[in-house]
Amino acid sequence: MKYLMFVTTDSDHTESDAAAAPDIEEWADYVQGRGSHVIGDRLRPAADATTVRVRGGELLVTDGPFAEAGEWIAGFDVLECADLDEAIEVASRHPMAYAGRLELRPFWPLGDE
Amino acid sequence: MTVPPHARSSAAVANAVAAERLRIVASLVRITGDWELAEDCVQDAAARALERWPDDGVPANPAAWLTTAARRRAVDVLRRRQTEREKLRELHALSELERDVTGDDVPGPYGDDRLRMLFACCHPALPMAGRVALTLKSVAGLSTREIARAFLVSEATMGQRLLRTRNKIAHAGIGFRVPEPHRLAERTASVLAVIYLVFNEGYAATEGERFRDDLATEAIQLTALVSELLPGDDEVHGLRALLLLQNSRRAARTDAVGDLVTMEEQDRGRWDGAQIAAGLESLAAARATGRPPGWYRLQAEIAALHATAASPADTDWVRIVMAYDALLALNPSPVVALNRAIAVGFRAGPEAGLAELSELETGGGLADYPLVPAVRADLLRRAGRYREAAAAYVVAIDAAGTEPERRLLRRRLREVGGADPAEPAR
Fold first, then answer.
1. Checking CA distances to A58, which of A69, B182, B244, B320 falls within 20 to 30 Å?
2. Are B153 and B162 in contact (CB under 8 A)?
């Protein structure tokens, strides 16, 4: 199964949580070693976001993210895992599991119910 | 006395289904990944047995007969579906079903489908209400209607809840497997939390709520299953001990007219000796693991000290307060602190209990907890401070959650000579 892992900020953590976070290189080695990593990267902050809509036939391009929030998406990874437990295991070793939060969203391939 | 073959075979069907349902459903879920199909096939097999056994006689191995019938049904359904739209997973399931696997063919110490099912139903990625409903449906084998009644919602609402839970399992990719060894303890804790919640729903049931009442029994049966499947986990035995010891007091909790009787006033002769013995046995099994006592085991230790005391005065309050201290060290919850204050009130007298209580209140955290006024009222009553107690009971009656609790508090209010605000003055 494919999962999109949103890497998001979360101010609700302690300094010792952040200090306990493993190194991102370590995570990259781990996830690539087990063959679970499809693609992933950091993302520029929300200030660099552009929102695009078409309304009433008119293209609307605006500055900023689609929703203003205290937390923002800082990166993403696409994981290929046998099941959710595997994806949770991969996510639990990511540094941002300690100093942010990770959201796992299963892919919903077109044609599937 | 002769039993007509019809009656004999329907009892045999009921027994065989009760004994084997979970194993058959769980193996079908593992193979097909389709929870609803698995349940339907077992129901169909049971119906077929009811039809056939009166004429053909009860088979020598009813469990094997039911398993084969359920699997054949699954093959039929999947074949029919296949013609509609071929799916890789279903093709795979078909070939596995036709090989007639035995069900427990995955090696390893946790190679049991029932355990896989339990972990899937109690997966932390599912909402708690869904975990509870699905565990009762798929592990305990209750009908949607029974679960709906127990949780005081309509059958349609419960059906929706079960559907959403099964959908999340399928869509999120919750696997049908036992967690990795390094995650086993925390995932087992999640299973135990579901069972504890089921028990409390049943235990909190008031009179006339038979369906809720049955939940306590279901929960105890679930702990029997889990302790069979995970015998090395001390908290599994601890929870089983706790539930048995609490449930042993069930009959004594209410009097002839359905009013609540506090533990202090209960007729200890009405406590269920067999359940107490079984509870103490589970507690011994928990202790035998040699681990430091966990959350459920500590509560079971407290329940055991009550269960083995000949009278309220003979209760070992010193050890009970120590157990509460250990619980607070594990989890500094205000509810545990409140119970500790009550225990201190028995160990060192009501004034000491009141001192604990006011310390808790200044510490905060207990502010809106509805049991606080009732606890204070009882401590004041024991201290002989009847006027203050009466005022506290009036507040407690207002804060009480259920009618039986309010009736008990009104009785107490009369005992301390207070006037019940709800009753017209004479």
1. A69
2. no
- Taking the CA of residue B323 and the nearest CA in chain A, the distance in Å comes to 30
Q: Using an 8 Å CB-CB cutoff, list residues of chain B that contact chain A.
A: 123, 125, 171-175, 177, 179-180, 183
Task: Give the pair of three-digit tokens for residue A7.
Answer: 């890497």
Facing residue for B179 by CB, picked from A82, A85, A108: A85
Q: Nearest CB to B175: which of A3, A83, A106?
A: A83
For CA atoms B76, B77, B80, B86, give the dihedral sign: negative
> For residue B298, which of B329, B274, B273, B277 has the smallest C-alpha distance?
B329
More confident residue, B411 or B203: B411
3-state secondary structure string, B196-239? HHHHHHHHCCCCCCHHHHHHHHHHHHHHHHHHHHCCCCHHHHHH
Eight-state DSSP code of residue B252: G
pLDDT for residue B421 is more than 70: no
| pLDDT tens digit sequence for B249-285 | 988 988 888 788 999 999 999 999 999 999 999 999 9
The verdict on A4 touching B (C-beta cutoff 8 Å) is: no
| Residue B5, pLDDT score | 62
Residue B67 near residue B103, CB atoms below 8 Å: yes
Rounded Cα distance between A18 and A12, Å, is: 11
CA-based nearest residue in chain B for residue A104: B172
**Most confident segment among A3-12, B11-20, B202-211:** A3-12
Give the pLDDT confidence of B69-88 residue by residue, as tens digits. Answer: 999 999 999 888 866 666 66
- pTM for the full predicted model: 0.87
CA triple B331-B336-B341, angle to 5 deg? 135
pLDDT tens-digit profile of A31-56? 999 999 989 999 998 888 888 888 99
| C-beta of residue A25 within 8 angstroms of C-beta of residue A68 | no
Residues of A in contact with B179 (CB under 8 A): 85
Domain boundaries, chain A: 2-106
| Phi/psi at A52 (5° precision) | -120, 130
Q: How confident is the model at residue B296 (pLDDT cuts 50, 70, 90)?
A: very high
Q: Looking at domain A2-106, what is its CATH homologous superfamily?
A: Dimeric alpha+beta barrel (3.30.70.1060)
| pLDDT value of position B17 | 85
Please give the structure tokens belonging to residue B172. Answer: 């999120």
Tokens of A43: 């993302």
Asked if B149 and B143 touch (Cβ cutoff 8 Å), the reply is no
